[in-house]
Amino acid sequence: MVKIVWTDFAINDLNEIGNFISENSVRYAEITVDKLFKSVEILVNNCFVGRVVPEFEDETIRELIRGNYRVVYRIVDDFRIDVITVNSCAKPIENSDAFLNDGL
Q: Which of 7, 31, 51, 80 satisfies CB 3.0 to 4.6 Å to 76 for a cystine?
């Protein structure tokens, strides 16, 4: 069974998304963050379901598009997936703190 690990960067992204949305609607913020968090559950049975992130062209760095967000993950091995970042589709992925600081 695959273990899904949320990196600190990805958790911080979810918090920022929630804080931003909650300025207009606390309830919608909760719903959005919950859906984004649960969206990776599909990876437990099929880690290759997401597409390869085009900016990196690395088979192990993939993404799920959920609404206006990109949930980017790395297949570490057959037993572990790291969720790297949750990024707005409008924001260049290369500007994500996760990629700037992780050296990808």
A: 80
| 104/98 Cα distance (integer angstroms) | 8
Measured CA to CA, the distance from residue 24 to residue 53 in angstroms comes to: 31
CA 34 to each of CA 11, 29, 64: distance values in angstroms, whole numbers, following the listed order? 12, 8, 15
Note the pLDDT tens digit of each residue in 70-89. 999 999 999 999 999 999 88
* Distance from C-alpha of 25 to C-alpha of 5, rounded to nearest angstrom: 28
Domains (range + CATH), the chain: 3-102 (3.30.2310.20)
* Contact call for residues 94 and 55 (beta carbons, < 8 A): yes
Confidence (pTM): 0.89
